[in-house]
Amino acid sequence: MTGTTELIPISCTLETVRQARKRCGQCQALKGAKQIKAAEAAGFQKTESLHSLRVEGSDKAGMGAKLTRALAEAGINLRGLSAAALGKRYVTHLALDTAQDAAKAAAVLKKLS
User: Fold this and answer.
1) Most exposed residue of 15, 36, 96, 100, measured as fewest CB within 10 angstroms of its CB?
2) How far apart are CA 96 and CA 52, in angstroms?
């Protein structure tokens, strides 16, 4: 269909990293001086201020670009992004600096659907 844009339902969930760890059994904190030293050497820093946004929807070509473009155009900075396609769906986890940034990102992305 030339000249049309398909609207794809997107759901967003705001959560803290601590909440995400409880939900996701694979998320593990660093343990021991050796792991902490290796993370610091790689440039990682400990933070208590990281906010997470989980975004899910139908997997379509270009969705990652569409999501990140909308966030960039809204002036939202990402601290991190992780995404995966699961069958015909995708899930993306965004890391943001503040709860306000996370709420703004959720509002921006909901407008895409």
Assistant:
1) 100
2) 6
